[in-house]
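To whoever picks this up:

The nightly regression suite flagged TonB-dependent receptor as changed. Nothing in the input moved, so I suspect the structure step. Input below, exactly as stored in the fixture:
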Amino acid sequence: MRVITTAIFLLCSILSFGQERGSSPSIDITISGKILEKETNAPLEYATVVITNTAGSIVTGGITDATGQYNVEVSSGTYVVSYEFIGFETKVLEAQKFQKNTTLPVQYLAEDAQSLDEVVIRAETTEVQVRLDKKIYNIGKDLTTSGATVSDALSNVPAVTVDVDGAIALRGNENVRILINGKPSAIAGFGSTDALRQLPAEAIERVEVITSPSARYDAEGTAGILNIILRKEKTLGLNGSIQTNIGYPNSAGISGNINLRTNKFNIFNTTGYRYRDAPGNANFTNQYKDASVINPLVIEDREYLRLSRNFNTNLGIEYFLSDKTSITATGFFQLGNDDDETINETREFDANNDLSTFRLRTEDETDDGKRYQFSLNYVTKFDTNGHELTADLQYENDDQEETSFIGEKNTFPNNLELPAEFITSEETQNEYLAQIDYVRPIGENAQFEAGYRGNFKESITDYELTEQAIVGGAFIRNDSLSNEFTYNENVHAVYTQYGNKFGKFSFLAGLRFENTQLKGKVDAIQAAGSEELNIDFDKNYAGLFPTLNLIYELGESENISLGYNRRINRPRGRFINPFPSRSSEANVFQGNPNLDPAYASAFDLGYLRRWGKVTLTSSIYYQYETDAFERIQEDTGELTPNGIPIIRTIPINLSTNKRIGAEAGILYNPNKWLRLNGSFNFFQFETEGAFGGVDYGTKNTSYFARGSAKVSLPYKIDWQTNVFYRGPSNNAQTENKSITSVSLAFSKDIMSDNGTIGLNVSDLLNSRKRRSFTDTTTFTSDSEFQWRERSINLSFTYRFNEKKKRGRPSQNGGGDDEFEG
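Regenerated output under the current build:
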């Protein structure tokens, strides 16, 4: 991968030099020629030609076209000419004297067996690169994500877990900040993960796991940052791919990406449509301890029938104003339409464990939404050493409308229809972003950086619950639950950081200042005679967030790193909306307007070592968080019309949360036909705090592990197996049992490697279920929940003018995926 990265950087540098020289009146010589593959005499497209002077400095360069031809302009003089291509031996012509236009002899490049082996293997598996403040995982050719979503792909990244609800966690901590191309984005769903379930995994080029973020990044996210880099081709010409898939339970989709790049502009687009049926199920057994409860045992069985239809497109154009300046405009649009049905069968038992009531409750929900985003990026490079200025402007909008019709009837001891409910929730979110970053190298190894970012968000949620007083009667607005909640979050941030390298020691130190304003306003109808509502809030927080990252190189392939950072976790709209919303008649969620941000300080000590075909990454980490959020369940003291106690879930600030853990990852590629990787994460967290006179302190140890094996079989067939295991865990009230999941995938290349047929089975054993037991002073709850049942997916991918992530080109030329991003 280092070879590839170097080539990318070199290619960009050469293009820049070539354009710069092209505008100079001193150029009067053209050097031309042709590069062929030695074994087959096939032309090598995108091979690199580098012209250096006698002092060893690069003067100019170029790349070959589809026929292997190149033309390079240079001033007359004596030069060294180098010919390079990924996976091939470099060829050098020493001391070439050019006084006039010259056509050099045809150059034949031979495969470099060792280099080619490295390129092929590492390009087709997840590979890690370590930087001062992050780890970079190139997703590579992961068969299990064929036809999958970005959310599915993230579940294969070390240190990252995606639970059965789709919640994303880093090292077991769900307070992770998700960025798209380094910025907050509507594609990430304004902090929700719903949009990531709709974006095809093929859109990802790489994922940056930032556990010790530098001052350049948002201070949001106590667990760290996941930065998803989307694909954008950097090679010249027209290229792209299209993928179709069909699966069971009923699902189908089509997605494509296309890229057109010239010396002046780059146009790129990814578009996809998905149709997906995702059935799930759950069951709950609630035992109430109060002897006065008429039916102390309640058993619920739920069936979830979810049908989603989603369209998304991302279109961008990058225009090169000069060889040093470019401007990029992108637009993202997503349209979704979901129809969900939840069937809830409830059995209530009396104190003698005899069935007293059997109730059927159905909820039909529709969710229509659209998201769009416009962004503008400006980059000017003052030189080729990294001295640059970037500026970003971005606007995002998210409109969601949900409607739910809830019908209920008793079937035992008599057949009795119950009054129905109708819920409407409309949510509109707007976000503005302005950012500017300046980077200035100082000398050979030092670098100074400074910048500003402003984030301004507003979300308006209009929640209305109407109920029938009698069966068949009119729907009457429930004023105690219906409300309109407006939430604003405005953040101003400035930062500066400085890095340097002294021999084998490198450091990056920074300081970020953020000022946060959180405002909430509730419009609700007051019941006659009730006290005036006074639940609006306007809070302001200012804080300093220092960061420090160190690396010491023990050898060429071995280093240790140490990182420190301070982070913030701001409460979101749903967590502070004081009006309750309910998922069932007896279970409500209520926000807490008194929530304050949580702050965390984290330390990370890492070790990296490479032995030939083995790479080890490991780290030990510690985090101390104050005012940490915790969701607790409590009995409200109120009863449903059927006499069932109403349980409320509410988030609170607990005093402290300590987390310590260790992780290790292994990448092992013993042969071209076998690629193995695995990771293990062990952590312990301890919470101390009390609420309402109840001590919610707890201490728990848990772990998760994943492994992947990929085997290349004869006839261009690949086989991959992924295994994931999460150990048991618990918090103050709930014990979660372990989860095991196995995925299996096959693929075969066809059509001269331009096409690929894939088959994958997600959750082969149908075991990806969350099983938990909750014990409080008033009740116990034993539950099992499965968000999505086992699924089978068949896909077909066709690539045009794109190579299949290999160092060696196909006969018809084309780009190389490794240059993307």
